[in-house]
Amino acid sequence: MYVFPIFEREGSIWQERFEGGATGVNALFRSVKRQVPISTRQEGDVKDKPDEKRYEEREDGLGWMCEQNWQGIGMGVEMRFYERTLSQWTAILDETYPQRDLKKAWEVIGKNTWMAYVATLQPPQLNMIGGPYKIYVTPVADSGFTIAISMRANQESIKNPEAFQAMDVLFHRLLESVKVEPWTDLAASEVETTRLQAMEILKQDCFKHYKNKPRQAPTWCQPYFRTE
Fold first, then answer.
1. Nearest-CA neighbor of 81 among 23, 132, 140?
2. Phi and psi of 176, rounded to 5°?
3. Are the beta carbons of 149 and 136 closer than 8 angstroms?
4. Percent of the chain at pLDDT above 90?
5. What CA dihedral angle connects 24, 137, 108 and 66, to 10 degrees?
6. Tell me: the pLDDT tens digits for 59-115?
7. Is the pTM of this model over 0.90?
8. Rounded to whole angstroms, how far apart are CA atoms 87 and 80?
């Protein structure tokens, strides 16, 4: 899978796109505070007042970089890339993860040291795939950012032991794949090679499914038909 380059400029975080300029993605990485309009008529203590607009500050942001769920086995994997320190993660996980038999450890995987939280599997919850199970967090050098990769599961997930084990292997291979290294000319060359390979895969996939119906092609696919 190819992810378009992400970079920081003038205090904001941006990501390149398939075409056009970069788009702002602060909300994926940071807590973003927004001024949200509220009508006074929605508030019980001011029903008799004229309809006025006022604003309140709400916290938003801190989304997922990517996420994949498997509903049949009640499991999921997600990756987050936050401007958050390990100490801040510790405070949050100590409050949100089930504390009974919670295991905390430091694990060295590849060249990275991960802070690992592994919880006891919980009963299934309504309208939720999986539940808090494993989360591993590692710092991105001294940037102030951290990468968190988590696996969700519940007590029903273990009833399919082969799938459960396969997901556990997948999770640890994701951890092994994380590389934190300086941005050099060699790294830039490798990323560009990967980008070109990914674009070729997208192009072939686009033609495979939409060559005979280009008007139905999704947004990411349409530029290929304009250049052919």
1. 140
2. -65, -25
3. yes
4. 36
5. -50
6. 777 777 788 899 889 999 999 999 999 999 999 999 988 888 899 999 999 899 999
7. no
8. 16
The residues with which 14 forms a beta bridge, in sequence order, are 7, 24
- For residue 174 the two structure tokens come to 């994701």
Cβ atoms within 10 Å of 70's Cβ, excluding its own: 17
DSSP collapsed to 3 states, the chain: CCCCCEEEECCEEEECCCCCCCEECHHHHCEEEEEEEEEHHHCHHHCCCCCCEEEEEEEEECCCCEEEEEHHHCEEEEEEEECCCHHHHHHHHHHHCCCCCCEEEEEEECCEEEEEEECCCCCCCCCCCCCEEEEEEEECCCCCCEEEEEEECCCCHHHCHHHHHHHHHHHHHHHHHCCCCCCCHHHHHHHHHHHHHHHHHHHHHHHHHHCCCHHHCCCCCHHHHHHC
CA dist 137 to 57, 111, 151, 199, 204, Å? 29, 13, 12, 30, 36
Contacts of 10 (CB under 8 A, 6+ apart): none
The position carrying tokens 């599961």 is: 153
Separation CA 115–CA 138 (nearest Å): 6
CB-neighbour burial class of residue 92 (10 A; exposed 0-12, middle 13-18, buried 19+): exposed
For the chain, the straight-line distance linking the first and the last C-alpha, in angstroms and rounded, comes to: 24
